[in-house]
Design brief:
Length: about 120
């Protein structure tokens, strides 16, 4: 699921500064984040972002540095990561799991994740 996420500037600043969601080694790239539907957000100047400014997270990848990996694996799309943060802020804690499974068991694992109320990213 990678539909865009809309939020206020105040909510975006809270999301973007949450150390539980952005610990060392977790970062994003290829992001498309727009203000009021047009102008790109300057992530280097979040203090200038108005609390009531409309922010739309359209795209991006969230990655986690992993020892031994040349390229950090994608753990979620940036919009999905923001949705997970919102759910946690509303009292529902969600986690991201990275799983290695043989191809023959892939469907069974995906079905188990869906049955448990999760989603495969």
């Amino acid at each position: 699921m990678s539909d865009s996420v809309r939020m206020s500037g105040a909510e975006f600043r809270a999301f973007y500064s949450d150390p539980d969601y952005w610990p060392d080694g977790v970062w994003h790239d290829d992001e498309v984040i727009l203000l009021d539907g047009g102008e790109p957000l300057n992530l280097d100047d979040l203090e200038a972002l108005g609390a009531n400014t409309a922010v739309e997270i359209q795209y991006g990848d969230v990655r986690r540095d992993t020892e031994g990996e040349v390229i950090a694996p994608v753990i979620a799309s940036l919009p999905e990561y923001a949705r997970m943060w919102r759910k946690r802020a509303q009292g529902e804690t969600r986690v991201i799991l990275q799983v290695a499974v043989s191809e023959k068991n892939r469907e069974a694992v995906e079905e188990a994740v869906a049955k448990a109320g999760g989603s495969v990213l």
